[in-house]
User: Fold this.
Amino acid sequence: MKNIWNYVSLFLLVGFFTAGLANDAFGQKPAGENREKVREKLKAHKVAFITDKVQLTEAEAEKFWPMYHAYEEEKKSNREDIFEKGNLKKEMTEQEAEATLKNMMEFKSKDLDLEKKYISKFRTVLPASKVVRLIRAEKEFKANMVEKIRDRPGRRGR
Assistant:
């Protein structure tokens, strides 16, 4: 159950981070346009970070990145599903809590199945050692983003 909250927290933190970067980086442009530019910058940063950490060759990168982007799209879809089904309010009835737990377990199961599916796919273009580096690099990238969010000037609640 802790993992689901980690995913939810990370999703929210990245969302707040991108919204904050948008205001800082792009001034008073429309919010939707800013978010998209920030997402693209974040995506490019992640690609560079992972490419470096995993030490992808050009040939590997050419085959790997389309797979990885498809993986991220499926993960995003799963996260959106949990938010649609989720009931994250503090006070809830026992029935609401049961339904929330069921949805959380379903999300974790889907997420694990998705990870297994894509690890197998990644193994068709990368050696096992690089897939392990990929998993580590993803965790390191997320940790770096959370740290940057925490250390942002003007952050509330310090």
Summary: Residues 80 and 133 are 27 Å apart (CA to CA). The chain has one domain: 2-150. The chain has five helices and no strands. Confidence is low (pLDDT under 50) at residues 1-30.
